[in-house]
Amino acid sequence: MRTKNTILFSLISTFFLIFLISIWKILATLQGLSINSFNIEIIFIFGFLISLAHLGIGDRIKSIYKAIIFSSIFVFCDGYLIQKLPIWYNVGVFLILYFFTNKISKYTFIGLKEEHSTQVILFDFLTLFGILFFSFVILFPFYMMLVTSFKTQIALLVNPLDFSINFGQDIKDLFKSYFVIFKSYKFGKYIVTSTIVSVGTVIITLLFAIPAAYAVARLNFFGKTFLSTSILIIYMFPAIVLVIPLYTIFSQLGLRNSIEGLLIVYTATTLPVAIYMLQGYFKSIPKELEEAAILDKLSWFGIITKIIIPLSIPAISSVALYVFMIAWNEFLFSLMFLDNPNSFTLSRAIQYLSGDAETPRQYLMAGSVVVTLPVLFIFVYFEKYLVSGLTAGSVKG
Amino acid sequence: MNDTLANTEKKTAYILTLPAVLLVFSIILFPIFANIWISFKEVELKDIRIPEPRAKKIVKSISDEPTKIKILYKLRNSSLIQEIRDVSFEDNFPKNFEIENLDSRCSYKKYNLKCEFGNWPAKYRENFQVLFKTNDGSKIDKKNLKSIKPKLEGKSDNILLNTNFTLKNFKKVLFENEFVDLLLTTFYYTFFGTVGSIIFGILTAQMVNQKFYGRTFMRSVLLFPYVAPVVALAYTWELLLDPNSGTLNSLLLNYQIIETPINLLGQKYIEISILGFDFKLRLALTTVIMFEIWRYFPLAFLFILARLQAIPKELYEAADVDGASPFQKFFNITLPQITAVISILFMIRFIWNFNKFEDVFLLTGGASGTRTLPINVYQQGFAISDIGMGSAVSIVIVVLLLMFMFFYFKLLGKKVDEN
Fold first, then answer.
1. E strands present in B183-276
2. Taking CB atoms and an 8 Å limit, are A361 and B204 in contact across chains?
3. Cα B259 from chain centre
4. CA–CA separation, A352 vs A341, rounded Å?
5. Contact A127/B214 with Cβ under 8 angstroms?
6. Where are the alpha helices (DSSP H) in B242-282?
7. Subunit contact B224:A139, Cβ cutoff 8 A
């Protein structure tokens, strides 16, 4: 039992180490190092030996010394004997090994005797593996987007794997793609259009949604249940089904290629979500406040502006942020309704840019960075408000 | 007293909800009915422009006669297929202009030329010419003349409003355009995308539910693909997967994992042999499904995480006392607790994936075996410019979705009864 567990433990931890080193090697390759092999066999042997040695030595050496010794040996063999690589690469390997030996330091021979110990180990390592794997898989495209925007076409042709950024060069050269898209491709204008459309959608949606949500939350009227269920059903409804009729109607009314047209459609598509989220919050506000206000002869307008809105600022701002994000990211309707470059939104402009096969990829990526950054910034900054709203199913996609 | 209060309450409610309801109904519900209407019509993209009478004004001076001028109106019907009835024409001239030759259809009063051109058939064109001279002998300013634009009006039928209906579109959708293939592709895309995103959602939720350093950061990172604009993400993926200079292919070549680049987004099938069995995998479709899973598993993650955090800790403590293994805990405690949320997620994601347009459109444009129903709506409506066909496809989508929802709720209802 003990031997089996020991071998299993070593295997699991070794695979984890291989994974760590492989990711580091991929990242190093993308910095222009010529690494042509993962050397999985060698890492496997080393990892296995380290795991076994760790168990064998146990508490006889302080774990910090143990970690440093193992890491140094590994770095010496991998980064010096097998392939000579720059210092920064080896420092990275050292840190990874240090992290790894620290992770395995809590497992001991005695622990391995316990019931389910291999399953516990597997679970622990799977969690660790998952965290790193998902971080890598998710962040990698974003990272590539960013670094590609700083490269030039020629540099990428010479070595398609070298994404190192030369910070020594002139700021103008470094940010060349950004200068180009703002100067030659009028991205400044598109940012303004996108902002106007998004902020406009937020304002109009809130103007319509707050009264409606208040009525649904508080007042009794015929058709109330019908209204609240239809809000949910409409929310589920596919946008692609609306495209053709709206296109024909908008063409006949001359609303295509206009900001007004986009505002109308965006507001209509975000209203159900906004009403749904707001009424949930309004219901949680104590009724007594309004009853006092009715006694004071406040009209419904007064109740909403003087009581409801000030009390639900957090909910309103989270709805506003959502609506902003939905409108900013929206692509389908802007593709259908806008064909004049003068009225493009950012998303539509990037799509238009990519339609030209001659457009260098770093411009495309610079545009992508420009459209992504505001959203990610808002998201990270206001994450607390947004996550609770996301669970309410507010961003459709 | 009470009665009037209830009445005012009702009235207030209607006033408060009316703007929102009107807007949503006109932009969302009305188009759905309009879709049904259009789907029974033969309408093309060019038909939906309302035909208008147009005139291009050309001012020509006559040599040696500076006080005379010739004005040529190039008249035409903008539509290639529709007639315009009762076309009227109006143009103004400076106060010293006298007409030389008056067309029988026109009248000239107070320096205002009015004509009734009658009916213009489709593609109608006419060069209409008028001669003027000044009555005080002064020279003519051509620029000024050109700046005055003629006004034209006419009546025409709106092709969308007549009552000619046909079943041709539905016949074409259901029996011609490889409908089965389209349906299968859509089903694969929807089903595997949904299942994949839920599986990844469970894994990540289970992961983040544990305590580790940087957990809140991890939670926001996991949501990045979901909140970032689809355009940026799709093009980044496209560059990563590009067969010629894409990073993924370069990396694989560099590590000698593959010998020739794989066109992940442009190749319909790839042959794989596992244990001697040859499979044909739909490569581009698989890649597109991967993108979809990558982009939408965060929603599943959030829903499931919220549910996981609500599971009482006592359950796990009791399991520990009983000596349950981590896997037993997962399958016997966690999984039953999240089935309800998974079934809701399955429905939401299934419906949304079924209608997903942008992702496939941006990645492949519907080429190499990735043509789903929503893509078909776009292709029929705007690439082939057959609006009627596009509408018919969207009606098919709605009907399929309603059927799915009906069966899903029936099935779900049964399960709830059993429990």
1. 269-274
2. no
3. 40
4. 9
5. no
6. 247-254
7. yes
Among candidates A30, A161, A248 on the partner chain, residue whose Cβ is nearest the Cβ of B387: A248
Residues, chain A:
397
Q: Is A358 helix (H, G, I), strand (E, B) or coil?
A: coil
Separation CA A286–CA B143 (nearest Å)? 71
Residues of chain A with CATH 1.10.3720.10: 179-391
Q: Do residues A82 and A133 make contact, with C-beta atoms less than 8 angstroms apart?
A: no
Task: Give chain A positions within 8 Å (CB) of B247.
Answer: 30, 144, 160-161, 163
What is the spatial distance between Cα A137 and Cα A143, in angstroms, rounded to a whole number? 10
Q: Which H or E element spans position A153?
A: helix A153-158
B56 has which bridge partners? Answer: B74
What CA–CA distance (Å, rounded) separates A305 from A319?
Answer: 17
Closest CA to B387 of B42, B31, B27, B29: B42
* φ/ψ of residue A109, rounded to 5: -55, -40
Contact yes or no for B222/A136 (Cβ under 8 A): no
Distance from CA of B401 to the nearest CA of A (A): 9
Q: Considering the domain delimited by B51-155, tell me its CATH architecture.
A: Sandwich (2.60)
Contact A148 B38 (CB under 8 A): no
- Secondary structure class of B373 (helix, strand, coil): helix
State the smallest CA–CA distance between residue A279 and chain B in angstroms: 12
Return the residue matching tokens 């859509």. Answer: B186
The rounded distance, in Å, linking the Cα atoms of B290 and B18 is: 43
Using a CB-CB cut-off of 8 Å, the residues of chain B touching A37 are 255-256
Residue with tokens 């005695």, as numbered in its chain: A110
Look at the block and give the residue holding tokens 């006109």. B26
Report the complex ipTM.
0.90
Contact A364 B254 (CB under 8 A): no
Q: pLDDT tens string for chain A (397 positions)?
A: 678 888 888 888 899 989 998 898 888 888 888 888 877 888 888 888 888 888 887 777 777 888 888 888 888 877 777 777 788 888 888 888 888 888 887 777 777 777 777 788 888 888 888 888 999 999 999 999 998 888 888 887 777 787 877 777 788 888 888 888 888 888 899 999 999 999 999 999 999 999 999 888 888 888 888 887 787 777 777 888 888 888 888 888 888 888 888 999 999 988 988 888 888 888 888 888 878 877 877 777 888 888 888 888 888 888 898 899 999 999 999 998 888 888 899 999 999 988 877 778 888 899 999 999 999 998 888 877 777 666 655 455 5
Output phi, psi for B114, to 5 deg.
-120, 135
Could you report the per-residue pLDDT of B245-273, keeping only the tens digit for each?
788 888 888 888 888 888 888 778 887 77
What are A304-335's pLDDT values in tens digits? Answer: 888 888 888 888 888 898 899 999 999 999 99
pLDDT at position B9 over 60: yes
**CB spacing of B224 vs A209 below 8 angstroms:** no
Q: Which residue from A161, A245, A328 is facing B250, i.e. has the nearest CB?
A: A161
Strands B151-155 and B125-134: unpaired
CATH superfamily, region B177-385: MetI-like (1.10.3720.10)
**In angstroms, rounded to a whole number, what is the distance separating the alpha carbons of residues B105 and B107?**
7
**Is B292 in contact with B361 (CB distance < 8 Å)?**
no
How many of the other CB atoms lie within 10 Å of CB of A343? 20
Contacts of B94 (CB under 8 A, 6+ apart): B111, B141, B144, B145
Amino acid in the structure at residue A136: F
Instruction: Name the residue of chain A whose CA is nearest to B45's CA.
Output: A248
User: With respect to CATH, is domain A179-391 assigned 3.60.150.10?
Assistant: no
| Structure tokens given for B252 | 């694989």
Length of chain B: 419
Domain-wise residue ranges, chain B: 51-155, 177-385
